[in-house]
Amino acid sequence: MKNKQSYLTKGSFALLLFVILGYIVKFYPEQLTGFDSSIQTAVRGDLPAGLTAFFKIVTSTIDPIGIIIWVSAVFLFFLYKKWKAEAALLAGNLVLHGILIKLIKLVYQRPRPAIEHLVTEGGYSFPSGHTMAVTLVAGSLIIIAAQRIQQQTIKRLVQGGLLLYILTIALSRVYLGVHYPTDVIASMLLGLAILNIEFPFYDQLRFQWRFKSKQK
């Protein structure tokens, strides 16, 4: 693949930023207090009821049951279309998220913010599981849309909508009080790292399967 090194470089850089941020969270969390607090104050405001209801609904789409349901539906659609590599990318990233997020949270063991939580969440705070999940899953769909949607206007609308979805989920986790801003930033960095590192290998597999008529 012509741009393989470029993707690996970008992925490695995002991973390095995640590691640096994680190091600060683990050993010098007080250094992040001012940054996190200022963003929390700006995002949460006076917690209007309408906005709270909106963010609760949005974030529920990435709750374990919610994301499994809609990702399974998209996965089955891809199999129906015989887009096997795309189906593997989508499902594989959801499974990968489930494994990684549990291990990483145990490493950092960051307590959740000591502010009012508008939804019930257990476990540790760093990184944000919801944000990492949506970055990996919606990010996979952005990649697939780039390859499968021919009409440029529709492609851009779909990709823009998916990007907005990622950012809205990230914002919702801060607004609802269950994550620090640095939790969601770290999650997006890790998600971007994974997507960039795995893309050249996924794209090569997709080409090989199409060449061998294993998929459309």
Automatic annotation (TrEMBL):
TM stretches of this protein: 7-25, 53-80, 87-108, 128-145, 157-178, 184-202
Domain Phosphatidic acid phosphatase type 2/haloperoxidase as annotated: residue spans: 88-199
Stored SMART domains: acidPPc
UniProt keyword Nucleus, yes or no: no
Alphabetized UniProt keyword annotations: Membrane, Transmembrane, Transmembrane helix
Keyword Cytoplasm among record annotations: no
Pfam families from the UniProt entry: PAP2
Annotated protein name in UniProt: Phosphatase PAP2 family protein
Organism for this UniProt entry: Streptococcus panodentis
